Amino acid sequence: MAASEKPAYVYMVRCAGGQLYTGWTNDPSARLKAHQSGRGAKYTRAHTALDFAYLEECADKSAALRREIALKKLPKARKEALCAGWAAANMHLNMHKI
What residues does the GIY-YIG domain cover (predicted)? Predict the structure, then answer.
């Protein structure tokens, strides 16, 4: 990764109805806040974004975009399995919310 290049992330956000929205960002915290406040994607404005269900760091924007496309092609069951694994591995990050 070049010194001037920021890391990029691909993510899935869980919506109120259980749906998953997939996207990419350079700033996960700001992007989640945008989705939650109605300034994010049209889809999450209509389906109420709750929290990250999955977050993966990628080398750069190009890698994140490729990974986003790959995730969007997965069947729902595979997406849910990824989310479950990520949630279990990152349970300690959510402990401060309790």
Answer: 6-81
